[in-house]
Amino acid sequence: LEIDNADYKAYTPSGIDVSMISRDDIHAEDVIDVVKLLQKSIVGIADPEKFVTDKKKTIEDLLNLFLKEYFYEEKLTVELTYSRPNWLLTVKDSSRDNRGRNEKLTEYFNEAKLHIIKLLLLLTAVLYNDAVAVPGVARVLVLDDVISSMDAANRTMFIELLADFFKDYQRIIFTHSISFFNLAEYVFSTVHQQR
Hints:
alpha/beta; 6 helices; 41% helix; 21% strand; globular
C-alpha cells in the first residue's frame, strides 16, 4: 500500500487535516448530544464544548442554510440548545407544529431526515475546525457510506453541497451505490470541473 508513491509505513501525515464521517456517526437517535457527537467523530474538533459554545450561531446558520438551500427543507429548522450540562440539537418542523424537539426525535422525524441533519452538523464542524485556519494545510474529507438512507434527489443535492463548500478538499467517498458514484463523478468533473 502506497500513499503519494511512498510506502504507507514511511508516510507522515504532517501538514494534512483529515476529517472522516461514517455511517455509524449519523445513525438516527432519540437525542442528539452535539458535544458527544463531535467527541466521537473524526472532524478535527479538539474541544467540542468550546467549539459549540463559541460558534453556536455560526453552526445554526450554516445548518439551516444547508437544509433550506440544498435540501429544500423550508419548514425544517435546527438550533443548538443548552440543557445543563449538555448541548442538544433541537429540530422543529413548522408544517407539523411550532414546538422544537430535542428528545424522542425518532418518533417525530423520519430516519433519513435525522441522518441528513447529523451529517450536515458534522460537515459544519469540518468546515470550522481549528486546522482550517492554518495556511498550507492540505484538507481531506473521507465519507464512508453516508448516503444510504438518502433518496436520489437528496443524493444529488448532497453532491452539489460538497462541490460548493468542499471544493478545496480532497474528497474520498466510499459507497456501494454505483449510480451515486457515477453521478458524483459527473457533477464534480463535468458540471463543476473539479476532481
